[in-house]
Amino acid sequence: MSEMDSWRTPRPIRAAFFDVDGTLLSFATHTVPPSAIRAIEAFRSAGVRCFLCTGRAPSLLGEVPLELFDACLTMSGQYCYAGDEVFLSNPLDQQDLRHVVEQVESGLYEVLFMEAGDSYLSGHSELADRALEQANMHPRLERAGYALGRDVYQLNVFLPSDGMDTIRSVVSHMAFTRWSENFADAMPAGGGKGAGVAAALAWAGIEPDEAVAFGDGENDAEMFAAVGTSIAMGGASAAVRELCDYVTDDVDEDGIWKAYQRLS
């Protein structure tokens, strides 16, 4: 960013939503930069409610300082909680899950299964290993059939973009979004980060135009649409930038802090 001019918002900000990978967490260091922590603390000091809004499961948030957030919207908004209070729970359809398990057990692809208190990988593949290395995630291995009858909220489906018809052909109640060439997020139809944001705003008694959201991927599109002000990180693609009101610098270039300064 060249000039630190102020950014306008529809109304004073009362809520801020933050994606994790590529937004709060650096792909280079796998940590949250001190400048981002400083920005969140400054938001909170100003009375702004801060929310994590991530595709990760709760069990995969070890690198994130969760004490900074009023609530966590996990698994792309399918499981949202504040402490012990769960204010949105939207697991996958069991019949769809059974069809996916059958395909995984047939060797068609691998999947990362995500539950509220657990996450597990069906097996290794080039796409799975590359994606998990990029995110510095190390889920345990578990047979796919273990997921049956359990509340699974989201899948990371390790298929390329041109291979998604494989899974689409056997499910009826799933929606898909993608921010990586290595996998697609699979969630219940009608779910997504936008639904999680709406639930969090209702829970906190805050209007959408009083909220700002930070993200970097195509899976953040619904989150952007659910708030009054949307901000793309510098590492976001051109397509994602076009969805947003403003663009800040990359996570490794103090993008969250610089955005906070412009919003203040």
What does this structure look like?
A hairpin with a 2-residue loop joins β4 (79-82) and β5. The chain is globular and about 55 Å long. α1 packs parallel to α8. It is built from 8 helices and 14 strands. The strands form 2 sheets. An 8-stranded mixed β-sheet has the order 5-4-3-2-1-12-13-14. The model has no long low-confidence stretch (mean pLDDT 96). It has 264 residues and is an alpha/beta fold.
Outline:
The chain has 264 residues and is of the alpha/beta class. The protein contains eight helices and 14 strands.
Low-confidence stretches: none
What is the rounded distance between the termini? 16 Å
Strand count, sense and closure of the main sheet? 8 strands, mixed
User: Over the alpha carbons, how many angstroms does the gyration radius reach?
Assistant: 18 Å
Strand arrangement, major sheet = 5-4-3-2-1-12-13-14
Please work out how many helical segments DSSP would assign.
8
The helix-strand sequence is: EHEEEEHEEHEEHEEHEHEHEH
What would the keywords be for this entry?
14 strands, alpha/beta, 264 residues, 6-stranded mixed β-sheet
Write the layout of secondary structure elements.
Blueprint: E1 15-18, H1 34-45, E2 49-53, E3 71-74, E4 79-82, E5 85-89, H2 94-105, E6 110-115, E7 119-121, H3 126-135, E8 140-141, E9 152-158, H4 165-168, E10 174-180, E11 183-188, H5 193-204, E12 211-215, H6 221-225, E13 229-232, H7 238-241, E14 246-247, H8 255-263
Parallel strand pairs: 1-2, 1-12, 2-3, 7-8, 12-13, 13-14
Antiparallel strand pairs: 3-4, 4-5, 6-7, 6-9, 9-11, 10-11
Helix pairs in contact: 1-8
